[in-house]
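Lab meeting, action items carried over

1. Structure of the four-component assembly. Owner: GW. Status: complete.
Input record:
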Amino acid sequence: MQLPESELAVMDLLWIDAPQTSEALITQLSEARGWQPSTVKTLLSRLVAKGAVRADREGRRFLYWPLWERSQCVSQATRHFLESWFGGQLTPLVAHLSQHRTLRPSERKALAKLLRDLEGTHDA
Amino acid sequence: MQLPESELAVMDLLWIDAPQTSEALITQLSEARGWQPSTVKTLLSRLVAKGAVRADREGRRFLYWPLWERSQCVSQATRHFLESWFGGQLTPLVAHLSQHRTLRPSERKALAKLLRDLEGTHDA
DNA sequence: GATCAAAGTCTACACCTGTAAACCGGAATT
DNA sequence: AATTCCGGTTTACAGGTGTAGACTTTGATC
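Predicted assembly:
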């Protein structure tokens, strides 16, 4: 469930659209990150090896599907991040951001709205 | 400004209280993480090497001070994390947390209050 | 059927990280 | 002065990560 940076780049593409051929992934990542085809192939192998991606043979090539769900990975990464820096709490993170001007007013408003919406939706 | 997990553990102690001797750090980390004295020494060396910590000779031993500011490191780590998973935005993170029941009501309330407070404090 | 090209597998290699033992120099103690 | 002990420096070593070349296989083409 742990995804290093470069493997994440591959997963991100598969989460946007699946299945995809290595060719498609190579094209996108070559452009977006300047990676060589080999690099992408290696990453795909590693992802398949760790069970994050499934490779279905389709004729001569493979079709790659993400097996790990994005939301799962996000949860994991988020938990880890908050744990490491904010005692596992979200509030201190927001406090930090606001203290450092990193929380733009638009974001603050969006957040406030989101919280207002939640207030009703969720149970007490 | 990048701090791997284990070095962060050392910094966390120095951010709580500085300066500290290696002995003090070793004691705490031996207890908290089960690390051998050598491990802590290695981490201190690495931190000094990368300029995150200063070692001031005091008689036979050193006193260690954090040079990197916690808030700086937090900002860096946060930016990186949000960038990696949420397109650099905070709102999607909160949305994710709320969708996955990871946002306890108490946290939600604390957050709402924080945002209300900010509303006045900050400029338009 | 021989050949080519593309997709996949193996090998590589340097750097980072976690974890720690070995060693060394000087201060404290006997 | 000899010995011990403690803090600091060096060396170690395996596993993960970024990045990619070399080699292999297999369908496609001449």
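2. GW to write a short summary for the group page. Key points so far: Chain B has six helices and two strands. The CA atoms of residues 32 and 90 of chain B lie 32 Å apart.
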